[in-house]
Amino acid sequence: MTSAITETPVANQKLVRGLGLLDSTMLVAGSMIGSGIFIVSSIIARQVGSPGWLLVVWIVTGLLTLTAALSYGELAAMMPKAGGQYVYLREAFSPLWGFLYGWTLFLVIQTGTIAAVAVGFARYMGVLVPWVSESNYLIAPIRFGGYAVSLSTAQFVGLALIGFLTYTNTRGLEVGKLIQNVFTTAKTGALIGLIVLGIIVGLRSGAGAENFQHFWTLRGNLQDVGAGLTAATAFGLFVGICVAQTNSLFSA
Question: Is residue 196 part of a domain?
Fold first, then answer.
């Protein structure tokens, strides 16, 4: 007796639509709100030198991000296929550019972003847990000529975080979206809390009034943005705003 094995034809197999509106919103928001927003504002402030120009940088960044978002929305409506930018590049230019982008995303873009976020997480965790430090080695540096291989507690935490999130995503869509929703809610809540705390502390300490009284005044140790330029000159300020866009767009 032979048993019939029923197989689903490949042509009929489709991706599971397992994400609802909330899940999709959390996924996009989680991708947009990274660690950069908590890190780069101080860097931008040193580059442009005043509260007013700091806000200008973020406003310009918001407009650029909105333009990109609307463009992606239009492309997604025109080509509702899995693959995102790969599909758009393939259809707009040629399969070669889609192929190159796909491998670049895998080997450089996404990989580097994941590593950067893990490092940022470990550094901030080190503020709360001093044991997590780049100078606290689990494996002391082993030198090979001009190079060295080591493992610090900060690196270990970063690797453990990447491993944990990778594992959760291998458990399926339900677990993955749960983790995403929790983390995005936490990040959004932290941003809202930071804004509220800043307003309360600013009003009580007079820092808000001080900033608005000198809204466009350049202050502090201005960061060199290249070739000895700082925001102290008109051209240096323009260059500083352009350089600051790199930081703000990274976090946006």
Answer: no
